[in-house]
Amino acid sequence: MTALTAIEAVRTALDEALAADDRVFILGEDVEAGGVFRATEGLRARYGERIIDSPLAESSIIGVCIGAAHYGLRPVAEIQFADFIHAGFDQLCSEASRWSYRTLGDAHLPMVVRTAWGGGVHGGQHHSQSIEAYYAHMPGIKVVAPSFPADYRSLLHAAIADPNPVLFLEHKRTYRLFRQEMDGAPAETRIGKARVTRQGGDLTIFAYGLMLHESLAAAETLSGEGTECTVVDLLTLNPLDRETILDSARATGKVLIVHEDTLTGGLGGEIAAIIAEHAFEYLDAPIRRVAGPDIPPIPFHHAMEDFFMPNRDKIASAARELAAY
Questions:
Q1: Which residues neighbour 84 within 8 Å (Cβ) at sequence distance 6 or greater?
Q2: What whole-number distance in Å separates Cα of residue 199 and Cα of residue 274?
Q3: First vs last Cα of the chain: how many Å apart?
Q4: Would residue 127 show up in a list of annotated catalytic residues for this protein?
Q5: CATH of the structural domain 195-323, one choice from 3.40.50.11750, 3.40.50.920, 3.30.230.10, 3.90.650.10
Q6: According to a count of CB atoms within 10 Å of the terminal CB, is the N or C end of the chain lower?
Q7: pLDDT digits (tens, 9 = 90+) for 252-301
Q8: Stated pTM of the model
Q9: Is the pLDDT assigned to residue 172 strictly greater than 90?
Q10: 2-182: which CATH architecture?
Q11: 108, 122, 126, 127: which one is catalytic?
């Protein structure tokens, strides 16, 4: 039995994938030296030229991966910070996402783009963004956002094995947040499936990434007050697991959606729409959201960053109001 942090789980999954399949290679800035978060540490020594440093050019990183995947390889791109991925937006959304569709399924692009996202680390406006809503909006790209180390490992394997593009989001605050015991081969976690991580009958909280952990902490506090929450880890943001979302919403009749992305246009609006369209008659209260405020960047100063970031106290406060409705 081995206890791994999330970043160690990522490194383990990459090591396992490289060892199992010669078609897998890693491309990104500083990956030969281990990368800025040390996700690829030690892999260059074991796998040589399959770990490739790139120029500071995200569009080129993703473009090279598209070409390599088209010719049968399985590239894994590392974009150092999600804030920089927008330079490759056109490659991802105008090319990679449409590859299979425009060939009527005759061609596939088995490629993964890994990137570190989210705030809470005093990274300021250029190293703290939540970018998931932009890319979850695009059909043809799967978007994955694990919360626990075991899911980092299993879902990264699933992403590398997938025949089409996967954006793999790694919340940087969760990298070394805690360790999780793992034994033997990675668990089989499918892309597109959410997981109920806590059961309760009073209301349902949907979350992902760092906010899943904050939601679980809020649920523990509320339990001590007599309010029991179901907490659902979405895990995959595109495609959403509609079955689990609707089943969980119907079971409690009260829904709270949590994400640290800004409120307007965030993924919470889509989840709310799914529930409103398909489970409206089960609702006992308006759907609530806890999200970041609609301001352009996450502030650098710790007090202002705390103001921006949703946290367990804000989640618990909203949940109390919802439970009392």
A1: 58
A2: 21
A3: 45
A4: yes
A5: 3.40.50.920
A6: N
A7: 999 999 999 999 999 999 999 999 999 999 999 999 999 999 998 888 88
A8: 0.96
A9: yes
A10: 3-Layer(aba) Sandwich (3.40)
A11: 127
